[in-house]
Write a structure and sequence with these properties.
CATH topology of one domain: Aminopeptidase
Shape: elongated
Order of helices and strands: HHHHHEEEHEEEHHHEHH
Oligomer: single chain
Length: 403
């Protein structure tokens, strides 16, 4: 009957954890309970709605007991008592429950393993494509460099083989002449210039005889010419230094590096140069007759027909014709065993010259030092530059005397 009390568990179901549910769920549950307690005689206008699936799912999510839906009572027969008028009892609205905020320590739903695997697979595919693209770029550059290297090595090997194992007579003479003619037609033969290319690396040493401190005194004037009253007319040191200074000037104008050295210059120890010339003048002694002429010598220890001999002969070849002085061959040991010859480097060609006798040749030694210097310069250039493009005099006009 409709007046029957509800089951014992109904109050317990209605007394669920309302404090944990939203107001909408509580209101819906109250409406359903009110519908179930309606008298059986009153036929509802329409069947009660089915429980809301989302609400039931939410109640299941919060682990709340869901009241089972009781079957509707069967309608009474027409013979039954008259239908009582159902009184509608108003239901006071329930207070809105306070829903606490979810705790931070609430368990989160576990990630889907399949999504993680798909993401990892996508990342691997992207990295693999990037690596393949970089490898292709590196392989192309490596192929280019490898090809260039192989071509260079192959060319060097083939050139070496052809150079070593190909006979010079591989081509017949006519073919070689035709190739030479064709080559010279394309590349013209260079015309030699009148002036040689300056060579700053060549060094020439010029020793001014008796200049500087002497071996046993602070000053060594060398030979001295005196007048009848005993006054000094001229000294060998003055003549030698005047001529040596002009020689240095002329050689430097020809783009040579020249060192002006003293008689006992410390730089002469193991001195290396393209040539070394020591300039001296003969004595002013009265021999009872006129003694004139110049002397040129090399070290007696040096072999004949060597560079030292060539240097001495080149100086004599130009000095005699230009100064009109006679060459003398009365060499002394002071010339052939000159101390500078023993001090310099063995590979440095060296020669010594006596410009003339200070008594008989005093005028040319004092007044024409520029002529003497140019003659010595021409002799040095004859040794260093055999073609002699800038000769001051023609040595063929006056042949040099022979011993």
């Amino acid at each position: 009957m409709s007046d029957a009390p509800p089951p014992d568990d109904a109050p317990r179901r209605t007394r669920s954890r309302s404090g944990d549910l939203p107001a909408s769920l509580i209101f819906s549950e109250m409406v359903r309970q009110a519908a179930r307690t309606r008298p059986a005689e009153v036929e509802p206008a329409e069947p009660p709605p089915a429980p809301d699936a989302p609400i039931e799912m939410e109640m299941r999510l919060f682990h709340l007991p869901i009241a089972p839906t009781e079957p509707e009572p069967a309608p009474m027969a027409e013979e039954a008592a008259p239908e009582p008028v159902a009184e509608v009892v108003p239901v006071p609205p329930a207070p809105a429950p306070v829903v606490p905020a979810p705790s931070r320590s609430a368990p989160q739903p576990a990630p889907n393993p399949s999504d993680a695997r798909l993401e990892a697979e996508r990342v691997r595919r992207v990295k693999r494509r990037q690596n393949e693209r970089q490898q292709r770029r590196v392989s192309v550059l490596g192929g280019v460099f490898r090809a260039v290297f192989v071509i260079g090595v192959a060319s060097a090997i083939m050139g070496t083989i052809l150079s070593w194992f190909t006979s010079p007579d591989f081509l017949d003479p006519d073919t070689r002449r035709e190739l030479a003619a064709a080559l010279y037609a394309v590349v013209p033969t260079p015309t030699p210039t009148p002036a040689p290319t300056p060579n700053w690396a060549r060094t020439i040493g010029i020793v001014s005889g008796h200049r500087g401190p002497g071996q046993e005194a602070d000053y060594d004037p060398g030979a001295v010419c005196l007048d009848a009253q005993g006054n000094v007319i001229v000294t060998e040191n003055d003549i030698n230094f005047g001529v040596a200074s002009k020689v240095v000037q002329y050689l430097r104008a020809r783009s040579y590096r020249v060192d002006l050295l003293d008689e006992f210059d410390p730089r002469l120890n193991d001195y290396q140069a393209a040539a070394l010339v020591s300039i001296h003048s003969n004595s002013c002694q009265d021999y009872g007759e006129v003694v004139s002429g110049y002397l040129v010598a090399k070290a007696a220890a040096k072999p004949p027909n060597g560079p030292d001999d060539d240097l001495a002969e080149c100086i004599a070849r130009y000095y005699g014709p230009m100064t009109q002085l006679e060459r003398r061959f009365s060499l002394t040991i002071d010339m052939t065993d000159y101390h500078n010859f023993r001090e310099i480097h063995p590979l440095t060609p060296a020669a010594i010259i006596e410009l003339g006798f200070m008594r008989a040749d005093q005028q040319i030694l004092v007044e024409q030092q520029d002529l003497l210097a140019r003659a010595i310069v021409e002799g040095i250039l004859c040794f260093l530059e055999p073609e002699d493009p800038f000769g001051f005099a023609d040595p063929q006009a006056t042949p040099a005397p022979t011993p």
